[in-house]
Specification:
The protein is an all-alpha fold. About 80% of the residues lie in helices and about 0% in strands. The chain contains 7 helices and no strands. The longest helix is centred in the middle third of the chain and has 29 residues. It is globular and about 55 Å long. The termini are far apart.
Length: about 180
């Protein structure tokens, strides 16, 4: 008689893995927000006709992400205070620190811009690469979120495609503005 382990359905293994690695809603929100923020800033800071300056651009992307994460976390603190929730200071600190995925999401864009500082490629190429990377990452986050919510592959890919549209809009706007 064959061992039961020989008959494990790959789909059930995939579902178990997905359910164990389900992203938190806050991580998804902050990660997607960070990708969109990095794309928009990268595109805006790469001005046509100006001297390329990817170092300060990378710094501005990082500082804006840190400020956005702090502001969003602090907004949660203010909302709790307004709702008369007398949570401990530690939980307020945790609300601010919970925004780390927003900062993490901009790191690839910052790294790509720093590659331009190192002379690996031109700033315009770095921005185009970052926009493409972030657009693909938006597709990945959207697909992953839908899969962990129990959706099948077709509807998950559709959800990822809808998230990817945000990145495509930024790419199109960047091309039209320049």
């Amino acid at each position: 008689m064959p061992d039961r382990a020989d008959h494990v359905c790959p789909e059930s293994v995939t579902r178990r893995w997905i359910s164990r690695h389900r992203p938190q809603e806050q991580s998804l929100f902050s990660g997607i927000y960070g990708l969109v923020l990095a794309s928009a800033l990268g595109a805006a800071l790469d001005a046509t006709g100006e001297e390329a300056d990817p170092g300060p651009d990378a710094l501005w992307v990082m500082l804006t992400a840190l400020a956005s994460a702090a502001a969003h976390g602090y907004a949660h603190v203010i909302a709790r205070r307004a709702s008369a929730d007398k949570a401990a200071t530690a939980s307020r600190r945790q609300l601010v620190l919970a925004e780390w995925p927003l900062v993490a999401a901009v790191l690839p864009t910052v790294g790509i811009l720093l590659g331009a500082v190192a002379g690996w490629w031109a700033e315009a190429t770095a921005v185009e690469t970052a926009l493409l990377f972030n657009t693909v990452a938006l597709f990945g986050w959207g697909t992953w979120a839908a899969r962990t919510a129990g959706h099948g592959w077709p509807s998950s890919c559709l959800a990822g495609g809808m998230d990817m549209l945000i990145g495509l809009v930024i790419i199109i706007a960047n091309a039209l503005i320049k």
